[in-house]
Design goal:
The protein has about 280 residues and is α/β, with parallel strands linked by helices. The protein folds into two domains: about 1-70, no CATH class; about 70-280, Rossmann fold, CATH 3.40.50.150. It has helices at about 5-15, 25-35, 60-65, 70-80, 95-105, 120-130, 180-190, 205-210, 215-220, 230-235, 240-250; strands spanning about 40-45, 50-55, 85-90, 110-115, 135-140, 140-145, 150-155, 160-165, 175-180, 195-200, 220-230, 250-255, 260-265, 270-280. β7 and β8 (about 160-165) form a beta hairpin. It starts with 5 loop residues before the first helix and ends with a strand.
Length: about 280
């Protein structure tokens, strides 16, 4: 199969032309597991004007194609949080959905994209160059607690790749990658402030946060943080401990449930995105 199936084209058309897409994600997820997805690369628009090269067999790429965007509620919140001059740090940028959106909607600001996966980083660079986005800097490294080189586990689904957790299963393919703390990345990029940080690093969120303490205290950025309990445990962390550490530096924590922000108590979700809003004096 070397062409886009008609059902995928129809689902994309419906997604892009229907204001309320109730049930569309569930339909897309069902079809992904019950239909043959061609292993081809296509170009599609993101946010009407951006061009993104997609490998349809990859889960995130498939979502961007058939639904127009991956994680629509989170993307909507992200876009609302941007200002024309925002400085955005995309940690675990993959091929650049949030990087491209940030660069477009903060056209007078800056975007720093961090992506250690070799192929994903190359695809990210190509997508940025293709859209002629001059306010993006790409760091082909991993973010972590301290400068080092660490094993990085490559997954067949590239977005699932990440630093190898101490207690996780042994992956089939391992490479070494450079690890740079967020605070050092901010310094290398010459940033005076950071307004938004998105962290999606397959369980290594704890080390990333511990390497970003200077930035959190100085800039007080909005944090968008993916939590996956089993992956966090593989790095010796628990979501509740990460939540306590953020509250100690005066962040209020919310989970995104559908399109609504819901304040979190002491317990963390098993999986999901946390939105961490700094308290203002």
């Amino acid at each position: 199969m070397n062409r886009i199936p008609y059902w995928m084209q129809a689902l994309r058309w419906y997604s892009l032309h229907t204001p309320r897409q109730r049930g569309t994600y569930r339909v897309a997820a069902y079809l992904y597991t019950h239909r043959r997805i061609p292993k081809i690369e296509v170009e599609a628009t993101l946010d009407r004007t951006l061009l993104l090269s997609l490998q349809l067999s990859q889960w995130i790429d498939y979502n961007v194609y058939v639904l127009g965007v991956y994680e629509a509620p989170l993307v909507a919140l992200f876009r609302r949080s941007l200002h024309a001059d925002s400085v955005f740090l995309d940690v675990g940028a993959y091929i650049g959905q949030y990087t491209l959106l940030g660069a477009k909607h903060a056209s007078a600001g800056r975007v720093i994209a961090v992506e250690p996966h070799p192929e994903s980083s190359q695809r990210l660079q190509a997508n940025v160059a293709h859209n002629k986005l001059n306010n993006v800097s790409i760091f082909p490294c991993a973010a972590g607690q301290a400068p080092s080189r660490l094993p990085f586990a490559l997954s067949e689904q590239a977005f699932n790749s990440g630093l190898a957790g101490q207690d996780g299963p042994t992956p089939a393919r391992i490479i070494d990658v450079e690890v740079v703390p967020v605070d050092d990345i901010v310094q290398r990029a010459g940033l005076q402030r950071v307004d938004i940080i998105k962290i999606d690093v397959e369980g290594a969120e704890g080390p990333v946060l511990r390497g970003a303490q200077g930035t959190l205290h100085h800039s007080r950025p909005l944090l968008i943080l993916e939590i996956d309990r089993q992956r966090e445990i593989a790095f010796g962390d628990y979501p509740e401990a990460l939540m306590r550490s953020l509250r100690e530096v005066e962040y209020d924590l919310y989970s995104l449930q559908g399109w609504r922000l819901v304040a979190l108590g002491e317990s963390a979700p098993e999986y999901g995105n946390l939105v961490c809003i700094p308290r203002r004096p």
